[in-house]
Design goal:
Blueprint: E1 7-11, H1 20-29, E2 34-40, H2 52-58, E3 66-71, H3 75-84, E4 89-93, H4 101-109, E5 113-118, E6 136-140, H5 153-166, E7 175-179, H6 187-192, E8 197-200, H7 211-229, E9 242-248, H8 250-261, E10 268-276, E11 282-289, H9 293-337
Parallel strand pairs: 1-2, 1-8, 2-3, 3-4, 4-5, 5-6, 6-7, 7-8
Antiparallel strand pairs: 9-11, 10-11
Helix pairs in contact: 2-3, 3-4, 8-9
Bound molecules: D-xylitol-5-phosphate (DX5) and zinc ion.
D-xylitol-5-phosphate binds near residues 13, 69, 144 and 201.
Length: about 350
């Protein structure tokens, strides 16, 4: 798995469809972060690809996550099949003629990431009514239906940054995906517009090309674009970088973790190497992803003071209690000896 900020989802649409099991394994070995699965029903788009049964059969062939991109007219009718097939995220199109909300809710109830996608001609405002239910916004930069088309730069410019705003309710983990014509020539632009997940199709399956190098290049160029386009020249934070927010005795750490996580920020609780408490157990470190460190401080700096004070009071009380118990024991022993 690569470091850096941008993630690469390999679309297998242009792989050898006669050997998809090999294709997903190959994408993983060559450094793809996800597999992007383009499902077409010959109705919403003129083409037909594969469905839930194929996805289910591919699931055991790789460990990386599956992102389903449903270009179908009736996702509500089939969504359970895609959940059962083991998709980690399911994204469908807002341009369908059936209710959208129930399907988004079903995906979320199954604890998978839920997404909506827009064709190039559909304004992002079409997603507004559903924003609270979205984990993913997928911006199409080609007309859905075919791999290998050329990238629509204006669409990317108009939609990618505003797509991020649609996910502002998510402190962590909301994703903007960009799909269509993404390759080494366009990666820097979409990275500079803040795309989190780059769907790369035909560029990965060119005969004689080194897929691993292609993936590394696209990811590096996207990060480069982000660094200079959006982050004032500061290199993007690798997504596996965590920082210690505070260290607390275990029972207080547990409570603090729950409180921080209730706001959508993931927390790792690890035994630290800091101070040893009167009960003989060391403080636990609470780590948060560096990308949300500032937000965590903004939200919880006050509470952190309180937790630390509580910890100190608990330590003093526990130490006093141990001392008193020790004295009682010594007195008992003296009495027994008399
Ligand atoms: C198009 C699909 C894309 C496609 C991208 O309808 O949604 O995922 O595979 O292929 P490229 O990267 O070739 O545009
Ligand atoms: Zn797609």
């Amino acid at each position: 798995m690569g470091t850096g900020r941008a993630r690469i989802a390999a679309s297998i649409l242009d792989a050898d469809l006669g050997n998809l099991a090999y294709a997903v394994g190959r994408a993983e070995r060559n450094g793809a972060d996800r597999i992007h699965l383009d499902v077409m029903d010959g109705h919403f788009v003129p083409n037909l690809t594969f469905g839930a049964k194929t996805i289910r059969a591919l699931r055991p062939r790789t460990r990386i996550p599956f992102d389903a991109h449903l270009m179908i007219s009736e996702p509500g009718r089939y969504v359970d099949e895609y959940i059962d097939a083991g998709c980690d995220s399911i994204t469908f199109h807002v341009e369908i003629d059936e209710p959208i909300e129930p399907t988004l809710r079903r995906i979320r109830a199954a604890r998978r990431a839920a997404g909506l996608s827009v064709r190039p001609g559909t304004p992002l405002s079409a997603l507004e009514p559903y924003r609270e239910l979205l984990d993913i916004v997928l911006v199409m930069t080609v007309e859905p239906g075919l791999g290998g088309q050329s990238f629509m730069k204006e669409i990317a410019r108009d939609k990618l940054l505003p797509a991020r705003d649609l996910l502002s309710h998510k402190a962590f983990g909301g994703e903007v995906h960009v799909d269509g014509g993404v390759n080494r020539e366009t990666a820097e632009i979409v990275g500079g517009l803040g795309a989190d997940v780059l769907v790369v199709g035909s560029a990965l399956w060119i005969r004689g090309h080194d897929m691993a190098r292609e993936i590394r290049l696209v990811r590096a160029l996207a990060d480069e674009g982000f660094q200079y386009g959006l982050n004032d020249g500061k290199p993007p934070i690798p997504r596996d970088r965590w920082s210690v927010f505070t260290s607390l005795p275990k029972h207080i750490a547990r409570r603090a973790m729950a409180e921080i996580e209730s706001g959508g920020i993931p927390v790792l609780m690890l035994r630290g190497d800091g101070q040893i408490n009167p009960d003989g157990v060391r403080d636990y470190d609470l780590l948060v992803p560096m990308s949300v460190e500032t937000l965590t401080v903004e939200r919880h700096a006050g509470a952190r003071e309180t937790w630390l004070r509580e910890a100190e009071a608990w330590r003093t009380a526990a130490a006093d209690e141990r001392r008193a118990a020790g004295e009682r024991r010594a007195a008992d022993q003296r009495r027994a000896a008399d």
